[in-house]
Amino acid sequence: MADAIIIGAGVAGVSAALHLTKRGLRVVLLEKGLVAAEQSSRNWGWVRQQGRDRRELPLIVRSLAIWEQWQAELDTDLGFRRTGLISLTREPAELARWQRWAKRGRAAGIDVLELNGAQAEAALPSSGAPWIGGLQTPTDARAEPGIAVPALAQAACRAGTSLHQQTAVRRLLVEDGRVVGVETEKGQVRSSRVLLAGGAWSSLFLRQHGISLPQLNVRATVARTTPAPAIIPGTFCASDFCLRYREDGGFTLTLLEGEQHDIGPDSFRFFRQFFPLLAKNWRHMHLNALPASYVQQRRWQAMPPTQGETVFERERIYNPQPDMRQIDEAMRRFKLGRPELADVQLAAAWAGRIDLTPDLVPVISAVSALPGLVVATGFSGHGFGIGPGAGELAADLLMQTGPTVDPHEFRLSRFSDGSPMFIDPDVI
Ligand SMILES: Cc1cc2nc3c(=O)[nH]c(=O)nc-3n(C[C@H](O)[C@H](O)[C@H](O)COP(=O)(O)OP(=O)(O)OC[C@H]3O[C@@H](n4cnc5c(N)ncnc54)[C@H](O)[C@@H]3O)c2cc1C
């Protein structure tokens, strides 16, 4: 019997485990594959306030404080550095949107500098038409995803978390309408408190219990370079291209417009909820009708059988293939007009599956239909930075202690209680 069970050892589940264990609780953390093997090690490593949805600002401010504390007190270097984020543009409409966000950021207590064209050119000389301006948030940070989340898991284990990798949770155990534990591929674990932090698998997991979580996925491709001159010490973004300086001396590179959605049964199931997002972003969305992917998703989404192996153990680690055309283009844009980068090579390429909600804000919420269950998922491509705060909030909800951050905006019921869908127009 555990005080709390956590499903999923990504940044959300691992952070919650660390918070709960430090509060003296007996925590069982169950992971179908390996710690951080899906989104939480494949991301760019940005820990940013800049451009965040207004509903997430208190959570990112809190998360930065936790990152700072963990970086100082754990014996592994998480790579957490407050090296800032600079965004530069050549587009007046984009700059106006960023300036609107700057006002909101300052109101939330965040240090935001607005750069004019000359200051933007001084921050990173443009290799094409000159920048017209930008934003700089000096207190934004970066961390090393592949190191940080496993190190947090080790810290949780040292504090007393019982971690079980290669242990898929097949379903919840429910008695008298309450959660009483989980059934894993290796047997049952009982507890009256269960946190689902299953990343891109959460919607499918909940569906077998009659709970609807609108969630879709996009694939994103990332490149790592060999060590390079530190043209930027932190993170940098332009409309078409982003990079982060890494502790190993290289850069993590990505194309901003490169995310791909492979159409599957959920694309139709959640079409109505996602329509406003699609209508707003249709220019940047790449929708792929790939028969093999559709069939794979249909196979996944067949209801898990009540006996025997489920999709959660068949797909231990979802490992999509990177798009090598995007990698080549990212390397080209990185080097363009910068002779000092001529010898820098591609060191690695990978892809990850990002889970989205219809308003691009996570769900961190108790589930009223199943007392004892809390969900923390749907981080919509920016959950690494807010993971520590999201884990803390999930721990608060699980233990029903006064939450550190107001959870109202993250409630699951916003998708079904008639609340108007709000997509923050100033998000960068
Ligand atoms: C390419 C890319 C770039 C990104 N860049 C950034 C960035 O720079 N900054 C930022 O803040 N965010 C970024 N993100 C988003 C960020 O990585 C995610 O939001 C965050 O890692 C989500 O964490 P999670 O714990 O919710 O999910 P995950 O890391 O996906 O973890 C969920 C875990 O649950 C496990 N699981 C699922 N179902 C079961 C089950 N039934 N039984 C047992 N285990 C189960 C999975 O195996 C998985 O390990 C990026 C994501 C990608 C893919």
If you had to describe this structure to a student in words, what would you say it looks like?
This protein has 428 residues and is an alpha/beta fold. It has a single domain, classed as 3-Layer(bba) Sandwich (FAD/NAD(P)-binding domain). The protein contains 13 helices and 21 strands. Strands 5-6-4-14-15-16-13-19 form an 8-stranded mixed β-sheet, with helices on both faces. A 6-stranded mixed β-sheet has the order 8-2-1-12-21-20, with helices on one face. Strands 9-10-11 form a 3-stranded antiparallel β-sheet. β15 and β16 form a beta hairpin. α1 (11-22) crosses α13 (383-399) and α3 (57-73) packs across α13 (383-399). The structure holds flavin-adenine dinucleotide.
Number of contiguous helices: 13
Question: Remind me, CATH topology?
Answer: FAD/NAD(P)-binding domain
Using only C-alpha atoms, the radius of gyration works out to 21 Å
Mean pLDDT: 95
The CATH homologous superfamily corresponds to: FAD/NAD(P)-binding domain
